[in-house]
């Protein structure tokens, strides 16, 4: 089974318009390897400008989408609207689960809405430190995966991406060991069932150029979701080069 690696940069609520354009230009000017998909997720307000600055071979996405198609949902952006600008979307990032109280069920509906609109969702799952220390990580992550799989129904597994992001590793500098990342990604793959071998599963959490290769060497880690290190073109490109 060969799954094409994906390196995704989540810029979160960072970058001025000029920063975003400079970052997009630096990535566009780089010599990217042919064997890897590269994607960036700027703040939604910059997506259109970044799209114009970005090379054709770099995927572009939003950091969230609505589960609804249209209507009276102030402040939300529909997947079909995003589809006019980009081809991917992150759903269920732990910062949205935490700050916007997004439930497993809502994250599943967002993934389904993205797929229905023709976007590739990267659906995030991951446990808190408290849950890990209580030995409940697989239970919690398993339920998150089940909600996504149930919501998206029989969509071919190659059309969506999952990201394992342990909450305690995001933005903390405390990355998961490559063995722990492999073990959870293998668990997630088995939980998906028949489509498991076709799904790309990323690891995310304090990935930097120095640890990227160790994750990518794992059998069930098909790429990386990168936060902080995606804001510096040289670091992000070094992570891409680790594929
Ligand atoms: C993220 O935001 O998805 C993330 C993994 O952040 P960081 O790489 O900064 O830990």
Entry keywords:
binds phosphoenolpyruvate; globular; 243 residues; 10 helices; 8-stranded parallel barrel; TIM Barrel; alpha/beta
Mean pLDDT: 97
Sheet of most strands: 8 strands, parallel, barrel
What is the CATH class name? Alpha Beta
Q: What small-molecule ligands were found? A: phosphoenolpyruvate
Q: What is the end-to-end distance?
A: 17 Å
Radius of gyration from CA coordinates = 16 Å
Q: Roughly what percent helix?
A: 40-55%
- Tell me how many strands there are: 8
Stretches where pLDDT is under 50 for at least 5 consecutive residues are none
CATH topology title: TIM Barrel
Widest beta sheet: strand line-up: 1-2-3-4-5-6-7-8
Strand content: 15-25%
Order of helices and strands: EHEHEHEHHEHHEHEHEH
Describe the model.
- This protein has 243 residues and is of the alpha/beta class.
- It has a single domain (6-241), classed as TIM Barrel (Alpha-Beta Barrel).
- Strand 6 (161-164), helix 8 (178-192) and strand 7 form a beta-alpha-beta unit.
- Helix 1 (17-29) runs parallel beside helix 2, helix 5 (104-117) packs parallel to helix 7 (137-152) and helix 9 runs parallel beside helix 10.
- It has 10 helices and 8 strands.
- Helices cover 40% and strands 16% of the residues.
- Phosphoenolpyruvate binds at residues 10, 165, 170-171, 204-207, 225-229.
